Amino acid sequence: MIETPEPILDHANPVFGLELRGFDHIPAAERNMRLSEVGPLWLGANLNMFNISLGCVSVALGLSLWQALLACAIGNLPYVYLGLASVGSVRAGLPVTTFSRAVYGVRGNRLHAFLVWLCSVCFEVFNTVFGVFAWLSLIGLLGFDRNGLGEKLGAVVIQLIVGGGIAVLGHATMVWLQRLFAAVLGVVLLAAVAWTAPQGHWMAAGHGHLAGWALMAALITGAGVVASQPVSYLYNGPDWVRYLPVDTRGLRIFRRVFWWNFLSSFALSAAGALWASLGDMSDPVGGMKPFLPPWLYIAFILAVIAGSVANNAPTFYSSGLALQAVGLRLSRWAATLLDIGVSSLAVLYILFVQDLSTMLNDFVSLLVVWSGPYAGVWLADGLKRRWRFDLAEIHPPAETTSPKGGWRWRAWAGFAAGAGAAALTMKSPLYQGPISHALGGMDLSWVVGPLTAAGVYALLSAASRTPVAAREGAEA
């Protein structure tokens, strides 16, 4: 990091107070996060219906339960990328949408920042709708009209106020509350798994028993569906640990982030596969009712509601940072409020106009084509430069009208190569690439997209006479 004089803010990130920093650099004196808080933060964020729904898809592809569990394990391996990226965020003290400017350029990165915000809004909407559906199931059990306009609007308002309110306050409040979410949600979901595990149809398959190449194609495709979760975290997850002390050992950061994410996400996606083997899980909340006793089903519904809030709070938080990186001259909390407003309108559209399952499948399948290659480039660049950035270049003062760094062609060439490779090898409800078709429907986009982008960018940088890392190292 090329150090520049910067003011130190007192009480810049208090618990239950307003965080003062936004998408700018966090000085070492303001780093107030502990390594022990990383695990509960991620556990709380992962205990939600999205992970469960991804596991359900594995069984729907025709895999047996054992095969689906293998797909869930493979699909969660990309958390390795998140562990590496988190080390970079701590070293830089910056969110992803700020330090990725170093490779894409300040102006060039605005498109990616906008897409980060757009994808974050989609996840906010899905999480909120899951929570709303759970709330409507609960009031239906209590004898109220679950399809009433007032009931739906009330559920939306509660979800957005709680999750959005946490995000508006900021990082320290979010980290503190995630410990409570992790403990409560973990107990309830563990009880639900323990109750249903003996009922699991361990050799059941959605379309008969697969064998040979058809089995391999379904296995890799199922892993790709599950991988959409760790890949989706690459553009915002590293933001949440940037308050760790800058001298925290990289291996310790990597281990905390990787293992807490891998184990919790595998457990939840495996639970989804287990429950999909029991019966129809097209409604992942109502589908659990036949398999749980009434008291545990009510607790499960409450856990789903809380889980949507626990995942939405950090997503709202990073969405505000992304809006700042796009170029909106708003404070962090104001940008977060704007994001909450947009999400609210989108949630109402889903509830009253569009079907959630259709949009969820389309979104997940297309997400990997952008997010994997985007991350592959900045991961390669960050590792090459050892996460050392010129703050004056990538985070110029607000009054600067013509910031340095336009469209860096090497980064965009790497991204284009990765996105093209992902498009050729993907299989989705909207589109199937020719290579995927030739391989019998196997989806390899989640593997080849990030690796191709990183490899092409690394080769182009190595071929340059003044590689980015070497030039900025000399400047330092």
Stated plainly, the CATH topology of the domain at 35-354 is called Hydantoin permease
The percentage helix is 55-70%
Name of the CATH architecture of the domain at 35-354: Orthogonal Bundle
CATH superfamily of the domain at 35-354: Hydantoin permease
Uncertain residue segments: 399-403, 466-476
CATH class of the domain at 35-354: Mainly Alpha
The count of β-strands is 0
Order of helices and strands: HHHHHHHHHHHHHHHHHHH
Question: What would you report as the Rg, rounded to the nearest angstrom?
Answer: 22 Å
Number of helices: 19
Structural class: mainly alpha
Mean pLDDT: 85
Oligomer: single chain
Q: Biggest sheet, in brief?
A: none
Shape estimate: globular
**What is the distance, rounded to the nearest whole angstrom, between the alpha carbons of the first and last residues?**
8 Å
| % residues in beta strands | under 5%
Summarize the structure in words.
With 476 residues, the chain is mainly α. The chain has a domain of 320 residues: Hydantoin permease, CATH 1.10.4160.10. 67% of the residues lie in helices and 0% in strands. It is built from 19 helices and no strands. Helix 2 runs antiparallel to helix 10, helix 12 crosses helix 13 and helix 14 packs across helix 16. The protein starts with 37 loop residues before the first helix and ends with a helix. The C terminus is likely disordered.
Provide a compact summary of the structure.
The chain is mostly helical and 476 residues long. The chain has 19 helices and no strands. α3 (65-75) packs antiparallel against α11 (250-278) and α14 crosses α16 (409-425).
